[in-house]
Design goal:
Helix content is about 40%, strand content about 15%. The chain has an eight-stranded parallel β-barrel, surrounded by five helices. It is an alpha/beta fold. It contains 16 helices and 17 strands.
């Protein structure tokens, strides 16, 4: 796992949010009951599972380009085939249905709809997602499409990408198209996935597509335009969809802890400014944090932008993976703050990430404390972990993943008991998949994918989650 850093507005360089942990546990008390309408589900994204990158009129995305540059991806892997979901979606929907999931969060590949990010829609692309939605509904699974999970059409990137304000309008046009064609059947929409990560990893560190390394004045417009395009898309969806639907955005969030509370609080505060302040405050409060210099925000913010960004949300999607530990760098270091190793008490996933279920509870309570009445209901839109599975006689054993999911679902219930309005929980991911710069090494799935044969094998965690969903349904009858 390559080290991830980014430069703050202050000029400080920080390691980007780090990593999760799961620990094996002994016998647990029965899982507390969740409300009868609680939304149990799973998630995935287009470039990570679909494959078929050159079929049926799909245009090139920034990930197609980025993966072709040697050294960007572990093993020089790419998403050309991935899980071949484009051809195997019926099989995958069957697995989701047999799991008992009430919803499936997937993303739509923008370049499959508009090859160059503008103009008329591609009928074959629309047909694929229409067939996917119909298959889900026929199996009793509610579709939850995400409009953008990082696969920008390369033609738009060539024209300036998210640095250009025009991309916001192109995104709104795309949202209008999808609402026209799926809006009669989709009950929940998500505009963007993790604007923080796409901004920082893709446009500051350059370790994700499109691979840019911009300074803060250059990269701030990327963040602003991602958020502005969200607001425009919300308006387009509400104006166009043929049924009333709930609309949200999925943001990755973490508590940021000082490695040494007596010394490192400034480092933790700086990281929080980015995670929460830059990428959530405008959505819920209609303003950027006062700590951001006016000269910075003036590079992109125009009159009316913040009102557009702060469109009322029906829910906030929270992707939770970890707690971050930050510290002030030692004297003589090139940068004033840095990521610190987590305390030894935390166990780690295969990614090297420390597990902290309490951090999940703290994030949810922290949202209420920071945003108060401005906070909409919450859906956990991603939570999961990569572990080395044990494959024996056709079975896939992953006790660590089961322990991880059990602990984090209990952490959600703990937050709910404290008064937090959480409406759903989605596991990342239904399938092992292409894990961005880490290629096909880490496996996050409830279902193991043999990439050579495309054979799907439900893991022990799949069966555990299926039983949990069934028990919860029985518990509330």
């Amino acid at each position: 796992m390559r080290r991830r850093e980014f430069v703050l507005a202050t000029g400080a360089t920080i390691a980007a949010p780090g990593l999760i942990a799961a620990s094996k546990s002994g016998a647990q008390p029965a899982m507390p009951a969740f409300p009868p309408d609680f939304l149990w589900g799973v998630a995935a994204s287009s470039y990570q599972i679909e494959g078929a990158v050159n079929e049926d009129g799909r245009g090139k995305s920034i990930w197609d380009t980025y993966c072709r540059q040697p050294g960007n991806i572990a093993g020089n892997a790419n998403g050309d085939i991935a899980c071949d979901h484009y051809h195997r979606y019926r099989e995958d929907v069957g697995l989701i249905s047999q799991l008992g999931a009430r919803t499936y969060r997937f993303s739509i590949a923008w370049p499959r709809i508009q090859a160059e990010g503008r103009g008329a829609a591609n009928p074959k692309g629309l047909d694929f997602y229409s067939r996917l939605v119909d298959e889900l509904l026929a199996k009793g699974v509610a579709p939850m499409p995400t409009l953008f999970h990082w696969d920008l059409p390369q033609a738009l990137q060539d024209a300036g990408g998210w640095q250009r304000r025009d991309t916001c309008d192109r995104f709104a046009d795309y949202a209008h198209i999808m609402a026209e064609h799926l809006g009669d059947r989709v009950p929940r929409w998500i505009t963007h996935n993790e604007t923080f990560m796409h901004h920082v990893l893709g446009h500051v560190l350059g370790v994700n597509a499109p691979g840019l390394k911009l300074d803060m004045p250059q990269s701030f417009p990327v963040a602003h335009h991602l958020l502005l395009s969200h607001g425009k898309a919300v308006q387009a969806l509400r104006a166009t969809a043929k049924r009333k639907a709930q609309i949200g955005i999925a943001q990755n969030l973490a508590m940021v802890r000082p490695a040494d509370p007596a010394r490192d609080e400034p480092a933790a505060q700086a990281m929080t400014l980015y995670y929460w302040g830059l990428h959530v405050d405008p959505l819920l409060l209609g303003r950027y944090p006062a700590e951001l210099p006016d000269a910075l925000t003036a590079t992109a913010v125009r009159d009316g932008d913040l009102k557009m960004i702060a469109q009322p949300l029906d829910f906030l999607g929270v992707n939770y993976y970890n707690t971050n530990f930050m510290r002030v760098s030692p004297p003589g270091s090139a940068q004033p703050i840095e990521e610190a190793p987590p305390p030894a008490k935390f166990k780690r996933t295969e990614m090297g990430w420390p597990v902290d279920p309490q951090g999940m509870t703290d994030v949810l309570i922290g949202l209420r404390d920071r945003y108060g009445s401005a906070l909409p209901p919450i859906v956990i839109t991603e939570n999961g972990a990569a572990f080395a599975d044990s494959v024996a006689r056709g079975a896939v054993h992953d006790a660590d993943r089961i322990a991880f999911l059990d602990a984090h679902i209990r952490a959600v219930r703990k937050a709910m008991d404290a008064g937090i309005d959480v409406r759903g929980y989605l596991v990342w991911s239904i399938l092992d998949n292409f894990e961005w710069a880490d290629g096909y090494g880490p496996r996050f799935g409830l279902v193991r994918v043999d990439y050579a044969t495309q054979r799907r094998t439900p893991k022990d965690s799949y069966h555990w989650y299926r039983r949990l969903i069934a028990e919860q349904a029985g518990a509330v009858k």
